[in-house]
TrEMBL record:
InterPro entries named in the record: Bacterial_PTS_sugar_comp (IPR051471), PTS_EIIA_man-typ (IPR004701), PTS_EIIA_man-typ_sf (IPR036662), PTS_IIA_man (IPR033887)
Localization of this protein: Cytoplasm
Domain annotation PTS EIIA type-4: ranges: 2-118
Domain of life: Bacteria
Alphabetic keyword roster: Cytoplasm, Kinase, Phosphotransferase system, Sugar transport, Transferase, Transport
Organism: Ligilactobacillus pobuzihii
PANTHER family: PTS PERMEASE-RELATED-RELATED, PTS SYSTEM MANNOSE-SPECIFIC EIIAB COMPONENT-RELATED
GO biological process per UniProt: phosphoenolpyruvate-dependent sugar phosphotransferase system
One Pfam family of this chain: EIIA-man
Stated name of the protein: Sugar phosphotransferase system (PTS), fructose family, IIA component
GO molecular function: kinase activity
């Protein structure tokens, strides 16, 4: 069974990313979100994160930004002995690759999945045009 996935971010990015992924992949009950809203700090975010993860024995976390408050709060939990995988720099390709890997019973590689989704489209189109000549 796939490990639950927790998306954490500044503002509503994690909430909207989940919704966007669900447009492609369908409902995702195994994904939870924890958002940091304006006026909230580490204390509030920690309370929200703990509430979402308290009953999970093993889970994976994708954070929006390395060095940002959501990632820092999760990192502090790791440093204090919590056990979960934490990746920063989340994007839609990363989440979809994670879900696809789990559906195919493959070991997810979130970094590879995220990086493979990055593309200079102009360069790709130009290369296709060059091949046609």
């Amino acid at each position: 069974m796939a490990k639950p996935l927790i998306l954490i971010s500044h503002g509503n990015l994690c909430i909207e990313l989940k919704k966007s992924v669900e447009l492609i992949m369908g409902p995702q009950e195994g994904i939870q979100t924890v958002d940091l809203q304006p006026g909230e700090g580490q204390t509030e975010f920690l309370q929200k994160f703990t509430a979402v993860t308290k009953d999970l024995a093993d889970f994976v976390v994708f954070a929006d930004l390395y060095g940002g408050t959501p990632c820092n709060v999760a990192s502090k939990l790791l440093l204090s002995g919590s056990q979960f995988k934490l990746y920063a720099g989340m994007n839609m390709s990363m989440v979809i690759d994670y879900l696809n890997s789990n559906m195919l019973d493959n070991e997810p590689d979130p970094i590879k999945g995220g990086v493979q989704g990055i593309c200079d489209v102009n360069k790709t189109i130009q290369a296709l045009d060059d091949e046609d000549e």
